[in-house]
């Protein structure tokens, strides 16, 4: 069992991306990665905070990093790339003493800057490792063709995120390959899906996410695996809106990569949570898997 | 097409402030256009991001801070990743919205309202309460909820909690916002 890592689910993990949270917890437990909840964690401020002010944004993140430090832990993992960016940006900016002083002025308990933040994806690849994942597979995903979509900020900018390749990331591709799936080379891996503009500018999301659905269909992928709650929501929940706006008729399942890991590791259905998605991946999945020998 | 009088409108102080607040040297930009080529939002922008960079260099404060582009930038980090001069362009876009806010400008008001509703929710509950955020946004913009058709898709699955998940330390979070307000008004 590796050293414990603090777990920061992010606000959407309690709501619109519940199934990402439950599948992440179940998969990490099955692989011996010990995730410890951060007591009374708060919102990182997400995009709205950094578009308003960088000190405010860093303070909202730093409150959580300090809670991790209070737990005696040195690292926090989050499934959400948007939370991850904020936590890492806060750490990066408070390396400057003047900025750090401004942030700590906003906090009840000052943050020392000693907690690293990584993605759950990174923890799975680096702490658990692909070999361990491969040997834990009970139901190989043979016959399933997957496009892996990382979203725009999981690996960018590279100096800040310090993980995987910024133009052609492979971490999720490698995990899905270890599970026995066929991964198609997806050229739009790091293109933006329309981010948080779904509510104020749904037309923008329809165009950008529409391109992603089109590219995946063009490669004959059975589904698009994702690692970001916002990408998932845009591609899956808004797929009907996109189809209406673009005159298309896609029904492409968009599961979290942790849900597909759950299938391969024989995690109970309730924790995988396919029923929580808009386009249910199960019919396509069972068809693909039964076609294999 | 807007005609800009470059000499008359040149505001050198604006250039310095952008550089100071972003920690970037805007003079390093040689207008290669890489940022615009990779920007997924160029189709929705009124001014492409490389032209925003040029206008910042030229001290065109009013044109830049009144642009729609700065409110539509998703901080996707494509420009920052691909700029040959290592300029953190996305950070400059962020800083430009901070400045626009301070000048009372928001060329895409519904985006600002959405972000403000989000932060109000965090301030009140310590975490964002998605349902409350939506109601707040609809009330403030006076728009009918454009996502009404999504409701039935998430509500029965219990995804949009009807009650906020308040945290115990929500006063700590509220105090972060209060101190921030005090600092920015002092
Ligand atoms: S990529 Fe960099 S150098 Fe090229 S136009 Fe954009 S900001 Fe200027
Ligand atoms: S960060 Fe903003 S300006 Fe830069 S490429 Fe992305 S959307 Fe365009």
TrEMBL record, chain A:
Stretches assigned to the Cysteine-rich domain: 5-88, 146-236
Molecular-function GO terms, alphabetical: oxidoreductase activity
Keyword annotations of the record: Oxidoreductase
One protein family per Pfam: CCG
InterPro entries: Cys_rich_dom, HdrB/HdrD_reductase
PANTHER family registered for this protein in UniProt: COB--COM HETERODISULFIDE REDUCTASE SUBUNIT B 1
Name assigned to this protein: Heterodisulfide reductase subunit B
Organism, as annotated: Solidesulfovibrio aerotolerans
TrEMBL record, chain B:
Protein name as annotated: 4Fe-4S dicluster domain-containing protein
SUPFAM superfamilies recorded: alpha-helical ferredoxin (SSF46548)
GO CC aspect terms: plasma membrane
MF terms (GO), sorted A to Z: 4 iron, 4 sulfur cluster binding; metal ion binding; oxidoreductase activity
InterPro entries, A to Z: 4Fe4S_Fe_S_CS, HdrC_iron-sulfur_subunit, Helical_ferredxn
Species name: Solidesulfovibrio aerotolerans
Domain of life according to the entry: Bacteria
Keywords: 4Fe-4S, Iron, Iron-sulfur, Metal-binding, Oxidoreductase
């Amino acid at each position: 069992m590796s050293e414990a890592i603090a777990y920061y689910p992010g606000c959407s993990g309690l709501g619109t991306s519940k199934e990402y949270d439950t599948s992440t917890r179940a998969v990490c437990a099955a692989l011996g990665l010990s995730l410890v909840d951060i007591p009374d964690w708060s919102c990182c401020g997400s995009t709205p905070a950094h578009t308003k002010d960088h000190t405010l944004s860093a303070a909202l993140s730093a409150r959580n990093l300090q809670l991790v430090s209070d737990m005696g832990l040195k690292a926090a993992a989050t499934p959400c790339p948007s939370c991850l960016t904020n936590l890492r940006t806060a750490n990066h900016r408070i390396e400057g003493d003047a900025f750090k002083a401004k942030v700590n002025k906003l906090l009840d308990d000052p943050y020392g800057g000693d907690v690293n933040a990584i993605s759950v994806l990174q923890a799975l690849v680096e702490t658990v490792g692909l070999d361990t994942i491969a040997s834990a597979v009970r139901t190989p995903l043979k016959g399933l063709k997957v496009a892996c979509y990382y979203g725009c900020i999981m690996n960018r900018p590279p100096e800040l995120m310090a993980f995987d390749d910024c133009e052609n990331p492979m971490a999720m591709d490698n995990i899905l390959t270890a599970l026995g799936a066929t991964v198609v080379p997806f050229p739009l891996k790091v293109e933006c899906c329309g981010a948080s503009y779904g509510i104020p500018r749904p037309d923008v999301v329809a165009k950008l996410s529409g391109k992603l659905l089109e590219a995946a269909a063009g490669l004959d992928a059975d589904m698009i695996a994702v690692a970001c709650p916002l990408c998932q929501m845009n591609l899956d929940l808004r797929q009907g809106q996109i189809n209406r706006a673009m005159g298309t008729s896609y029904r492409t399942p968009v599961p979290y990569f942790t849900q597909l890991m759950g299938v391969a590791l024989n995690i109970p259905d309730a924790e995988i949570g396919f029923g929580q998605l808009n386009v249910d991946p199960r019919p396509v999945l069972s068809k693909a898997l039964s076609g294999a020998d | 097409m807007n005609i800009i009088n470059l000499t008359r409108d040149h505001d050198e102080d604006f250039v310095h402030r952008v550089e100071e607040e972003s920690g970037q040297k805007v003079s390093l930009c040689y207008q290669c256009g890489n940022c615009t080529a990779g920007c997924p939002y160029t189709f929705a922008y009124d001014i492409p991001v490389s032209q925003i960079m040029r206008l910042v260099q030229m001290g065109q404060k009013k044109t830049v801070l009144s642009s729609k582009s700065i409110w539509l930038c998703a901080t996707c980090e494509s420009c920052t990743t691909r700029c040959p001069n290592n300029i953190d362009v996305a950070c400059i876009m962020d800083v430009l919205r901070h400045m626009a806010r301070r000048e009372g400008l928001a060329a895409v008001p519904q985006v600002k309202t959405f972000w403000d509703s989000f932060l109000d929710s965090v301030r009140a509950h310590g975490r964002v309460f998605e349902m409350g955020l939506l109601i707040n946004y609809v009330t403030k913009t006076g728009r009918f909820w454009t996502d009404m058709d999504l409701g039935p898709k998430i509500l029965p699955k219990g995804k949009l909690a009807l009650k906020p998940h308040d945290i115990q330390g929500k006063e700590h979070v509220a105090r972060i916002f209060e101190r921030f307000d005090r600092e920015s008004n002092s």
